[in-house]
């Protein structure tokens, strides 16, 4: 509900300040993105085998039609979808739980929050190598520890069936703290007077959370989700080092397939087409989330 | 401020449960890092021993090796320059834009917001070659400038979106009050909005810093000798016939330190934001 | 660059501390006697892109000699393998000219056909750069030199080779009263007998898709099969022949019945670590891992390891070899400097020094040098040399442009066989079909 005064505020009379606030960021964004994007789009309509770059030339929609019949692409797409959905569901659930626990924590909040956030700051390169070792069936810590509670031994990333779940575990471990931080910050920014008023009115904490906090949190939560989905769809570093899509192609996601096509198989045209399709998939997914999640864009 | 209120009431059973739960969560999250840290203090034979050696004589040789290599310091410097610049520029450009995008209404805003967001969606793999070609032609390959530009493609869209949603949380009435009190638009932004979104600012800064600090793929292709960053320094310890676990983990532990320093530094902004919240409530 | 303790020890063993000053005097002598004007590119800089490798570490202490001799400033930049491959590809294919000299591997066919590396023939016969008599181009091992020629032009000079050998635990075999296997059938029987699930695997082989390609090629040849129809100019994939199928079946059976848990994603990270930690009785892989396995600081099995040549199949023992070479970038801005560097570092004299320091090389004269044989485990040297100098040279890596697609397709088939996703015949037949398509596309 907007008041008359706020309408006056939002419809800013002078254009100078808004322009000077907006323009620099937009100009920089356009400059740094448009040129490479144009290059990639152009290449995606070309036949371009790197070792024969002298034969480079336009081939219409050939790369895109090849993609329709490329089983490996579809398999990678399916795998990516599973990976993104499962990881996201776990991350949001855990992220919420942990953030709410942090908010009500009385003692040692700073220390606990700091420890829980640690996984975000470790370089993915190191994360990948350390987890690779943790997963080792013969020399790994995980099987050793799980052995104590009578579980395993698991093959983890060394088996085609367990590799994807294992990578989801790494992903959840490293990125849940991101959502914890976003949700926790969001909870902090919430005005306290609202909840207090509700509490005085006799609502229990759960009702307060569902009726007041959650709706207010929604914008920031949705942004958190949108950014997680975007980076989940593009996940590369850890997958690449942990198993390069292996065993076989059991963990080959779209980003990995793009990489293999371009940098191993040197089919730059086809790789660009794959990259553009991946881009389109991310874009469409985001728009859907924004729409369903009712993210305020207006 | 949430926890401030809790302190007023007596300790409950729930508080104890909550603490235990959080300690368990914390242990799970730091386990792999702790393991890596222990590995950085073990000899190679101990590091891979199974069953694991919990009691061992720590060795600092890996830290010595990594340190005396010399290049680590250079990589750290490069990473700091690139990361801090990219983060600063990202916030400087992004926060004002975010404010306008939160408060202004105009036609095409929806598409503009999606457009900004879409800059985050391009798989880096697709941009490696064009960026390499462009920077080679501009004579910018292997420079800080190149990396800062590339990292802005990651950071800027993120900052705008992140900050916009935090600003949306701030009640409009506060700004109106300031306007009625005679503040200009700029003053309202500077003295009302900015202080109120400090926690969001801190969070955005931390994320931007981490993204740039840990970025690997672009840095690998776009740097050679002058602008190599820390993740490459860590990767360096994967040699032809072995992963040098001790050195790799030692370098990774050292690489975490600047992020921690940055985190604690920015943390103060978070805390200040909290106090604001308390005043506000 | 880090001076690894182990490497430093090797160097000291090689020369003694005093000897480190000696090489300088000898290159001075060379520069006086030869026809080459070493100072012709004085004041220039030279950038050498290298993969992290024993060879790379070994040449570093010698570089100052070259700088003194020529007045050229040399910067050796070494990267981890994946990083290096990406950098080399992007740099050379775009003609950016960051590197003048690059370390080259089986991608040589791709790089030469694409025109990214310089043909070296003209330099080798030019007395300005190479003193033909002292250089002795015929001294390189034939099995390694073969790979440097593409369409009768030489695009690289070999620097080091690796060969497939069998590592085995002397103590374990002795305790079990078993002889060192010399054929694949014996290898299988021995491995199965020694396999103690959860404690010690009977045998280690790399199982990850891309990594299986090199190792299993040796199997295919030893069984009388071929990877491609025509080694010199491949036109069709033949790794689905009955011989190849038998070989890959054996490769998979060894791992299924006597390999470690999870071997389907084993690269050398895992195989070497497992062997170092005493988790396997035998290990068939490249000779280059000896230094890791014999280093008591890293390995719990040093001193307990025996070495044998590649086991024999129906067609004999055909170990695979891997060659590293040096090439000149076609977009180098300092070709004379690059030519001088190649002439010097692959020359007889420097090669011997490198060989003595690290037990690696690409020249007959190096491997036959008595100084080399004295320094390393005799059995290892014998096994390596035997594998590196086969009576009949093995085909080596496929001479095709689409080398990475081959690794992916063929390696993928071997990997799928190990993982029992289908039998060798089904996997290899389907893979051969896909390979033919890739071959046609990359022609």
Characterize this entry briefly.
Chain A has 298 residues and is mainly α. Chain A has helices at residues 4-10, 16-44, 62-68, 71-104, 109-121, 124-135, 141-148, 163-189, 192-200, 205-234, 237-243, 254-264, 268-292, and strands spanning 46-47, 57-58.
Description:
The complex is a heterotrimer of chains A (298), B (281) and C (443). Chain A has helices spanning 4-10, 16-44, 62-68, 71-104, 109-121, 124-135, 141-148, 163-189, 192-200, 205-234, 237-243, 254-264, 268-292; strands spanning 46-47, 57-58. Helices cover 73% and strands 1% of the residues of chain A. With 298 residues, chain A is mostly helical. Chain A is globular. Chain A has a single domain, classed as MetI-like fold (Orthogonal Bundle), CATH 1.10.3720. Chain A starts with a helix and ends in a 6-residue tail after the last helix. Chain B has a single domain (62-280), classed as Orthogonal Bundle (MetI-like fold). Helix content of chain B is 77%, strand content 0%. Chain B has 14 helices and no strands. Chain B has helices at residues 2-6, 13-40, 44-47, 61-68, 71-103, 109-118, 124-138, 144-169, 172-180, 185-196, 198-214, 217-222, 230-235, 245-280. In chain B, helix 5 (71-103) packs across helix 11 (198-214) and helix 11 packs antiparallel against helix 14 (245-280). The longest helix of chain B has 36 residues, at 245-280. The model of chain B is unreliable at 1-6 and 274-281 (pLDDT under 50). Chain C has 443 residues and is an alpha/beta fold. Chain C folds into two domains: 5-161 and 323-383, 3-Layer(aba) Sandwich (D-Maltodextrin-Binding Protein, domain 2); 162-321 and 386-442, Periplasmic binding protein-like II (D-Maltodextrin-Binding Protein, domain 2, 3-Layer(aba) Sandwich). In chain C, a hairpin with a 2-residue loop joins strand 4 and strand 5. The longest helix of chain C is centred in the C-terminal third of the chain and has 19 residues, at 424-442. Chain C is globular. Chain C starts with a helix and ends with a helix. The chains are: A mainly alpha (298), B mainly alpha (281), C alpha/beta (443). Chains A and B meet through helix 1, helix 2, helix 4, helix 5 and helix 6 of A and helix 1, helix 2, helix 5, helix 6 and helix 7 of B.
């Amino acid at each position: 509900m907007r008041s008359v005064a706020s309408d006056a505020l939002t419809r800013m009379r002078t254009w100078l300040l808004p322009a000077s606030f907006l323009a620099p960021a937009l100009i920089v964004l356009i400059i740094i993105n448009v040129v490479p994007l144009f290059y990639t789009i152009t290449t995606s309509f070309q036949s371009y085998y790197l070792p024969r770059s002298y034969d480079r030339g336009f081939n219409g929609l050939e790369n895109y039609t090849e993609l329709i019949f490329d089983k490996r692409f579809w398999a990678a797409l399916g795998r990516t979808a599973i990976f993104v959905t499962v990881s996201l569901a776990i991350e949001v659930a855990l992220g919420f739980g942990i953030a709410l626990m942090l908010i009500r924590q009385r003692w040692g909040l700073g220390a606990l929050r700091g420890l829980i956030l640690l996984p975000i700051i470790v370089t993915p390169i190191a994360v990948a190598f350390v987890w690779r070792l943790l997963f080792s069936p013969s020399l790994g810590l995980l099987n050793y520890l799980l052995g104590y509670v009578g579980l395993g031994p698991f093959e983890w990333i060394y088996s085609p069936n367990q590799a994807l779940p294992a990578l989801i575990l790494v992903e959840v471990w490293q990125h849940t703290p991101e959502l914890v931080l976003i949700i926790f910050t969001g909870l902090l920014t919430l005005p306290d007077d609202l909840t207090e008023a509700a509490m005085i009115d006799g609502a229990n904490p759960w009702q307060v959370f569902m009726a007041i906090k959650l709706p207010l949190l929604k914008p920031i939560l949705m942004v958190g989700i949108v950014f997680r989905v975007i980076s989940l769809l593009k996940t590369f570093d850890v997958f690449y080092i942990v198993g390069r899509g292996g065993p076989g192609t059991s963990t080959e996601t779209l980003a990995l397939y793009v990489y293999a096509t371009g940098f191993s198989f040197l089919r730059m045209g086809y790789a660009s087409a794959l990259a553009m399709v991946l881009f389109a998939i991310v874009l469409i997914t985001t728009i859907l989330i924004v729409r369903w999640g009712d993210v305020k864009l207006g | 401020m949430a926890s401030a209120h809790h302190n007023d009431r007596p300790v409950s059973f729930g508080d104890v449960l909550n603490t235990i739960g959080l300690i368990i969560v914390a242990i799970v999250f730091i386990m792999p890092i702790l393991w890596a840290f222990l590995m950085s203090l073990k000899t190679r034979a101990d590091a891979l021993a199974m069953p694991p050696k919990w009691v061992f004589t720590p060795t600092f040789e890996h830290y010595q090796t990594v340190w005396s290599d010399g290049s680590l310091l250079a990589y750290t410097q490069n990473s700091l320059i690139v990361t801090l610049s990219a983060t600063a520029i990202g916030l400087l450009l992004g926060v004002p834009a975010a404010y306008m995008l939160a408060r202004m209404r105009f036609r095409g805003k929806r598409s503009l917001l999606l457009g900004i967001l879409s800059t985050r969606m391009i798989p880096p793999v697709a941009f490696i070659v064009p960026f390499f070609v462009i920077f080679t032609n501009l004579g910018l390959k292997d420079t800080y400038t190149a990396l800062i530009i590339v990292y802005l493609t990651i950071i800027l869209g993120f900052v705008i979106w992140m900050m916009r949603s935090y600003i949306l949380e701030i009640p409009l009435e506060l700004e109106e009050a300031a306007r009625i009190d005679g503040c200009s638009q700029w003053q309202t932004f500077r003295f009302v909005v900015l202080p109120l979104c400090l926690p969001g600012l801190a969070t955005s800064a931390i994320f931007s810093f981490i993204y740039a600090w840990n970025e690997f793929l672009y840095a690998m292709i776009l740097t050679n000798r002058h602008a190599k960053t820390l993740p490459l320094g860590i990767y360096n310890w994967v040699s032809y016939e072995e992963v040098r676990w001790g050195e790799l983990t030692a370098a990774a532990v050292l690489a975490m330190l600047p992020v921690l320093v940055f985190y604690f530094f920015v943390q103060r902004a978070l805390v200040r934001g909290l106090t604001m919240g308390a005043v506000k409530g | 660059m880090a001076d690894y303790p182990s490497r430093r020890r090797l160097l000291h063993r090689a020369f003694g501390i005093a000897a480190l000053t000696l090489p300088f005097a000898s290159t001075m002598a060379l520069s006086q006697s030869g026809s080459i004007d070493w100072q012709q590119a004085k004041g220039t800089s030279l950038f050498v892109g290298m993969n992290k490798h024993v060879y790379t570490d070994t040449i570093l202490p010698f570089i100052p000699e070259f700088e003194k001799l020529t007045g050229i400033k040399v910067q050796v930049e070494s990267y981890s393998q994946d990083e290096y491959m990406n950098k080399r590809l992007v740099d050379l294919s775009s003609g950016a000219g960051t590197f003048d000299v690059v370390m080259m591997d089986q991608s040589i066919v791709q790089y030469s056909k694409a025109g990214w590396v310089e043909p070296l023939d003209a330099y080798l016969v030019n007395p300005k750069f190479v003193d033909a008599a002292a250089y002795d181009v015929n001294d390189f091992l034939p099995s390694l030199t073969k790979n440097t020629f593409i369409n009768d032009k030489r695009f690289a000079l070999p620097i080091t080779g690796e060969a497939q050998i069998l590592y085995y635990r002397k103590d374990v075999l002795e305790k079990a009263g078993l002889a060192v296997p010399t054929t694949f059938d014996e290898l299988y029987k021995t491995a199965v007998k020694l396999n103690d699930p959860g404690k010690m695997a009977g045998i280690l082989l790399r199982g990850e898709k891309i990594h299986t390609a090199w190792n299993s090629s040796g199997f295919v040849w030893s069984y009388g099969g071929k990877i491609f129809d025509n080694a010199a100019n491949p036109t069709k994939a033949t790794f689905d022949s009955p011989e190849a199928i038998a070989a890959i079946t054996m490769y998979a059976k060894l791992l299924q019945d006597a390999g470690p848990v999870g071997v389907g994603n084993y690269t050398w990270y895992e195989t070497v670590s497992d062997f170092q930690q005493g988790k396997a009785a035998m290990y068939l892989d490249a000779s280059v891992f000896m230094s890791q396995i014999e280093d008591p600081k890293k390995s719990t099995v040093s001193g307990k390891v025996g070495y044998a040549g590649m086991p024999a199949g129906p067609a004999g023992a055909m170990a695979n070899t891997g060659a590293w070479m040096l090439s000149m970038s076609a977009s180098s801005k300092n070709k004379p400097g690059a030519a001088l560097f190649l002439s010097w570092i692959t020359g007889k004299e420097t090669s011997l020094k490198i060989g003595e320091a690290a037990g690696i090389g690409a020249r007959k004269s190096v491997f036959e040098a008595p100084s080399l044989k004295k320094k390393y485990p005799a059995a290892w040297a014998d096994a390596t040399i035997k594998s590196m100098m086969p009576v009949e040279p093995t085909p080596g890596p496929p001479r095709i442009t689409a080398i990475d697609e081959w690794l992916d397709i063929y390696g993928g088939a071997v990997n799928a066989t190990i993982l029992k996703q289908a039998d060798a015949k089904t996997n290899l037949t389907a893979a051969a079909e896909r390979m033919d398509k890739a071959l046609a596309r990359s022609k």
